[in-house]
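Protein modeling request. Please complete all fields; requests missing the sequence field cannot be processed.
Requester role: graduate student
Desired output: 3D structure, token encoding
Chains: 1
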Amino acid sequence: MAVLTEDITEKRKLELERSKTYQMMQETANNLRIQYHDLLTASLETIATILEKRDPYTCNHSNHVCACSLKLYEYRYGVGSDYVTLKTAALLHDIGKIGIPDAILHKPGKLTPDEMRVIRLHAVIAEDILKPLDSGTAISGIVRHHHERFDGSGYPDGLAGSTIPLASRIIAVADTYDAMRSDRPYRAAVPMENCLKEIRAAAGTQLDPEWVEIFLELADTGSL
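Delivered output (224 residues):
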């Protein structure tokens, strides 16, 4: 009887040791995944910064879009569960432009239909670049859809309304605002008053009306 008890005790010890070893391996793997994710994110943010430095007209655009997007999100939700995902997606929303020829990206005049088709590829290129980041965060999908329009006439997939990811709808408002407030090769920055009128007019067509309303409320308080 004593021998049997000893055998059961030893077996239990082995099971506990195996369980502990497995847990340690899982923790190590998770830590490595987090380190990989953080390193890759930092690398891509650096690439996005380098991309903007090539074009003085869009310098700091991603930082501005990120700051505005987070203000909108915080106003509605506080620092919610999607805050970090939104921050990363907003910072990297234009990274796909690294695959667009400079002659098109920096063209001072109006783009031809063919050139417009090329530049619209940046949303798809960005998704391909960002897929390694995902691991459940949906960053690549958010970036893919930041040029969808609320009425379904956007690109690349013609999504409409709430089928567009929430973060994409927030980024779309911030992106539209910063684009108008920045000097571009083909026009000067739009005055704030006109900018607000344009964004208000885009509610329900280009932009989500809920987030336009939040944007306008923040603008009224001078928070932007």
